[in-house]
Design goal:
It is found in: Nucleus, Nucleolus. Keywords: Nucleus. InterPro entries: Ribosome_biogenesis_Nop16. The protein is mainly alpha-helical. The chain folds into two domains: 71 residues, no CATH class; 58 residues. It has eleven helices and no strands. α8 crosses α10 and α10 packs across α11. The longest helix is centred in the C-terminal third of the chain and has 18 residues. It is flat.
Length: 179
């Protein structure tokens, strides 16, 4: 089977091409990437980054926004210079929306698989807290050791504490009826 023509041919290096200039011009043309949607909607592409951030009430340089006191630097502050007048914030809604979004509770993104939950419930239901017996159970397909099974049960307890309490509470009446 013949080879593809373009793959085996050696590429020649072009000595006349200025790659640095190409890279710089490509970076200059690229607009700043803005992660926050609130800032993206309020951004004015005709203004500089400093002007845009000042209008929104955000700091361009965190070191200038929250200066380090001279006492911490080891210098004595004889005459504290008063800060010049604050800049005019024309778009305060950006900061307000960002604060509102930050105050919302975080979503719990990580969960356990349904198989692991069923496995742990089966083991607890049939063996209680006897981990050695759980390790010898026929449903222990992955041949987990007693410590591994205990770790999985503890993970289940930490992820679903209310569900675990209800499950244990539902098991106790069954055991009392058997006795």
């Amino acid at each position: 089977m013949p080879k593809a023509k373009g793959k085996s041919r050696r590429h020649k290096y072009s000595y006349n091409l200025d790659r640095k200039r190409l890279y710089r011009s490509a970076r200059r043309r690229a607009a700043p990437r803005i992660a926050c949607s609130h800032i993206r909607h309020a951004w004015d592409p005709h203004k500089s980054v400093a002007q845009n951030l000042a209008e929104m009430g955000l700091a361009e340089d965190p070191n200038k926004a929250v200066p380090i006191p001279r006492k911490l630097l080891g210098m004595e502050a004889e005459g504290e210079a008063e800060q010049p007048g604050k800049k005019l914030v024309r778009k305060p809604y950006v900061v307000n929306e960002m604060e509102l979004e930050a105050s919302l509770p975080e979503k719990k993104g990580n969960t356990l698989s349904r198989d692991l939950i069923d496995y742990v419930r089966y083991m607890i239901q049939n063996h209680g807290e006897n981990y050695k017996e759980m390790a010898r159970d026929e449903k222990n397909y992955y041949q987990d050791t007693p410590k591994q099974i205990k770790r999985k049960i503890n993970v289940y307890k930490n992820f679903y504490p209310e569900e675990y309490k209800n499950f244990i509470a539902s098991l106790k009446p069954e055991k009392m009826e058997v006795q």
